[in-house]
């Protein structure tokens, strides 16, 4: 699939393809699944400084993209409200928004995130201030968006990506004007975090999704 990668990575990609083929059997062909996995790998391989986890990232991103495509084609996701959070690096604002959304919505809605210029890792200070709310975003990773992901979203929330944000006619867009936490200390990020939380809760109310306050912040 990718002759420049190690044998271990090739094996990991083949194993990932097997898992995806099992999980999407009857929904997508083997060819489609392998194409999405390969292109997902390429999205990260060109900018990764550490390549150890590339097959895992590729599998996770391919799974998200295939779920999005299935929704676009009306194959599953059960009509749950779906929101896409976009910023520049997908390392701070959009990751915090995703964390709050998943925390409060649980299984009642779907959320994704992406960036116009994905960074190398999620902002460590953003991870720290979210941990203060009892929300762990340390396993998230910066990623781009793709057409099927944008098309699958009911609402696209943009945060500073400007003209780089994708526009599809007839889709609901909302711009959240928020400071970029990149380079800021935790003290300065907390007000941004709290404003994101407020906006996420308001968005859930608009989507008629009752927030799960039994999982609310400590």
UniProtKB/TrEMBL annotation:
Residues 81-206 form the Phosphotyrosine protein phosphatase I domain. This is Arsenate reductase ArsC. Signal peptide: none annotated. Pfam families: LMWPc (PF01451), Phosphatase-like_N (PF21234). It comes from Herbiconiux aconitum. The keyword Transmembrane does not apply. NCBIfam families: MSMEG_6209_Nter. Keywords: Arsenical resistance.
